[in-house]
Design goal:
Length: 365
Amino acid sequence: MNDFKVGFIGLGLIGGSIAKALKYFYPGVHITAHMRSQETARYALSEGIIDEACTEIAGAYGECDYIFLCAPVEANVAYLQTLKPFLKEDCILTDVGSTKTDIHEHINALGMQKNFIGGHPMAGSEKTGIVNSKRHLLENAYYVLTPTEEVSPDKVKRYENLVQTIKALPLILDYREHDYVTAAISHLPHLIASSLVNLVKDSDNDRESMKTVAAGGFKDITRIASSSPEMWEQICSTNRENIITVLDNYINSLISVKIALAEHDSHKIYELFDTSRDYRNSISDVSRGPLKKVYSIYCDMVDEAGGIAALATILATNGISIKNIGIVHNREFEEAVLQVEFYEEEARKKAVGLLRKYRYTIYER
Ligand SMILES: NC(=O)c1ccc[n+]([C@@H]2O[C@H](COP(=O)([O-])OP(=O)(O)OC[C@H]3O[C@@H](n4cnc5c(N)ncnc54)[C@H](O)[C@@H]3O)[C@@H](O)[C@H]2O)c1
Ligand SMILES: O=C(O)C(=O)C[C@]1(C(=O)O)C=C[C@@H](O)C=C1
């Protein structure tokens, strides 16, 4: 499948990244998009990210094989009624919203279940807008799919294939489970980051001593406090109950930390850091699919002729076969690095030891 039609509504960080990936992996795809701003439309057309910008939801959407809703979650829902008369039978209607129950309830109320598969790429950034979109943004990230009960297995398979083609990792979840899980691992962390930043703002002195000395720890845990208020207000208001549940648990855990400190319970405080360190270290920094394991390393390369050949020779003369090799530029690495993929874990480990001996800088992700 290459010559197919895709419609977007909203074309910012996530919509723009998906459109770029589709254009790259399916050069024959035709993309139509509807967005709020004329400036975004001009940019998307001039950069070749889309083929057509529409000011209204009309006929072009009736020809689409996929429609991606990529605006903030409440804005996505507001388009459903308008889209309904245009959807062709085999169109897959999807969204990229961070909450799923709200949109599934609207889909049910409107009787649009046969076309709908919710979607949520588990990658992003605190930055917004199409100018920050990247073809690689979703690469190697889980992409949650929440099919309705009525959508055909054939449509689900088709969508899974598309997600795999753009190099993300499809993962099917019930939409209610999705919202509970993301309340804990995404929505609560955003609330914590923003309230912590505001706490520091309100506690600082006139000379801004706190702001001045804020270092890595504070900056690491609060990067996401720079995210879009419009997007996050809508996420919170469409997942209130789950967020309140995990927030209650979190407040209780903070209260027990406070009690442990007040009671000089050093054992409890030690346990807090010990348990969290073990669990955090067990979380991979790159989403890895349950089905396909990738045995690769990333290597900083001096930009000189023959660099790749020299590395390949070292590996080959030591009996290590390379499955794949190439320059990557993705969200983990600001500068391009060389990705080398092996057939099995043992070869990967051996290559790491060997290349480090030759003083290459190796990253294991
Ligand atoms: N940012 C992330 O990390 C992230 C990750 C995964 C999913 N999401 C979800 O993706 C969606 C888009 O987020 P984003 O990060 O791309 O935000 P963004 O602000 O970069 O893009 C949103 C786009 O939607 C447009 N828009 C807003 N209201 C609109 C409306 N009523 N009609 C048409 N267009 C409208 C905006 O002009 C903008 O171009 C949200 O639903 C969000 O929950 C975000
Ligand atoms: O990396 C970030 O900046 C993000 O916040 C990405 C993030 C998250 O991990 O919470 C944000 C919202 C999404 O729905 C999915 C991913």
